[in-house]
Amino acid sequence: KKINFYAGPAILAQEVIEEASKSALSFGDMGLSILEISHRSKEFVSVLEEAEALVRELLNVSDEYGVLFLSGGASSQFYMTAMNLLNEGDKAGYLDTGAWSSKAIKEAKLFGEIEVVASSKDKNYNYIPTGYDIPSDYKYLHLTSNNTIFGTEIFNWPETDVPFVADMSSDIFSRPLDISKFSIIYAGAQKNLGPSGVTLVIVKKDILNKVEKALPTMLKYQTHIDKDSSFNTPPVYPIYVSMLTLRWIKKNGGVAAMEKKNIEKSDLLYNEIDRNSLFEGTAAKEDRSRMNVCFLLKDEALEAEFLKDCAAAGCVGVKGHRSVGGFRASIYNAMPKAGVQTLVDVMKKFEEKNT
Ligand code: PLP
């Protein structure tokens, strides 16, 4: 099997894929594929309940929060968050740390007074801004905790009493969190959780139902809290596979153990990028993402050859995003250390060959 460095949809644990494949043929003792069962069946209700319970257990989420599995991707949360929290004239702050933050800002502007507290656009988003003001009248401060495209990650949460709304699409479950700082956390599943098609939303219940405008039923968080994510037909299979991943995270020691492994893996790769005379990292060292490692060849002319060597070693998805260029290795929870070691070995051999 190839070693999957794609940014998303991305690698899943092998045992999750095996179990998901079995259930696609025949689920439990139902005599049906999971793909053809009712979302109202007791078997699926139990999947949904287990998925929610595991999210609560792994991230220490209290009953003050709803845990929802919605459709529409993280992109729908760009507007749904603002729509559910802001009345006309209400202010919210946004930290602009990349393309996904900018998209969130654009959508939120439809619903309130949006202030960009700081931006790292001046340096092609290669760092996380600090030292900006956060006025206390903000309803929330929106953060993108990990910038999938630019390879930066927030490790020091801003000091403020303003609650956070965070897009954690590409680093959820990669490290422990203090949930009490957050009003809403959302994450498209297709990196650290499951296949595409479901979005995890963790939302504080007491911040809801304060907007005056009537909202479409499907776009109100309260609807999905009241109906346990089954107001309409939820994405059954993506939720099931996410539940399997959550079981796998728990079995492997939970998010603290994931963090330890993610530090080891990202250190292994960044150390090679810094040591190897041919390569350089693109992100500011203190903000380097543990999930998406972006790097360049100092001599661009060698790029095609390097990608060929990666492919020959079974490494796929290493080509960088067009807005950064070079290479990006996405090394989510499910990437084994041996996978990262294979890429590091390719880099070492490439240096020997080209110097
Ligand atoms: N936010 C971040 C940080 C992402 O990495 C992505 C997708 O890669 C998105 C949002 C968009 O997610 P979706 O495709 O689920 O709408």
TrEMBL record:
- What detail does the entry give on cofactor binding? Binds 1 pyridoxal phosphate per subunit.
Tell me where in this chain the Aminotransferase class V domain is found: 4-343
Q: Where does pyridoxal 5'-phosphate bind?
A: 74-75, 100, 148, 167, 190, 232-233
Pathway note: Cofactor biosynthesis; pyridoxine 5'-phosphate biosynthesis; pyridoxine 5'-phosphate from D-erythrose 4-phosphate: step 3/5; Amino-acid biosynthesis; L-serine biosynthesis; L-serine from 3-phospho-D-glycerate: step 2/3
Cofactors demanded by this protein: pyridoxal 5'-phosphate
> What catalytic activity does the UniProt entry give for this protein?
4-(phosphooxy)-L-threonine + 2-oxoglutarate = (R)-3-hydroxy-2-oxo-4-phosphooxybutanoate + L-glutamate; O-phospho-L-serine + 2-oxoglutarate = 3-phosphooxypyruvate + L-glutamate
List N6-(pyridoxal phosphate)lysine occurrences by residue: 191
Q: GO:BP terms for this protein?
A: L-serine biosynthetic process; pyridoxine biosynthetic process
Molecular function per GO: O-phospho-L-serine:2-oxoglutarate aminotransferase activity; pyridoxal phosphate binding
Q: Which UniProt keywords apply?
A: Amino-acid biosynthesis, Aminotransferase, Cytoplasm, Pyridoxal phosphate, Pyridoxine biosynthesis, Serine biosynthesis, Transferase
Q: Which Pfam families match?
A: Aminotran_5
Q: EC number(s) on record?
A: 2.6.1.52
Binding-site residues for L-glutamate, renumbered to this chain: 40
Which cellular compartments is it found in? Cytoplasm
Question: What does the entry list under GO cellular component?
Answer: cytoplasm
Job of this protein: Catalyzes the reversible conversion of 3-phosphohydroxypyruvate to phosphoserine and of 3-hydroxy-2-oxo-4-phosphonooxybutanoate to phosphohydroxythreonine.
HAMAP family recorded: SerC_aminotrans_5
Q: What NCBIfam families does its record include?
A: PRK05355.1 (NF003764), serC_1 (TIGR01364)
Q: How does it assemble?
A: Homodimer.
Please report which protein family the annotation says this sequence is part of: Belongs to the class-V pyridoxal-phosphate-dependent aminotransferase family. SerC subfamily.
The record's PANTHER family line, in alphabetical order, gives: PHOSPHOSERINE AMINOTRANSFERASE
Name of the protein in question: Phosphoserine aminotransferase
**Gene this chain is encoded by:** serC
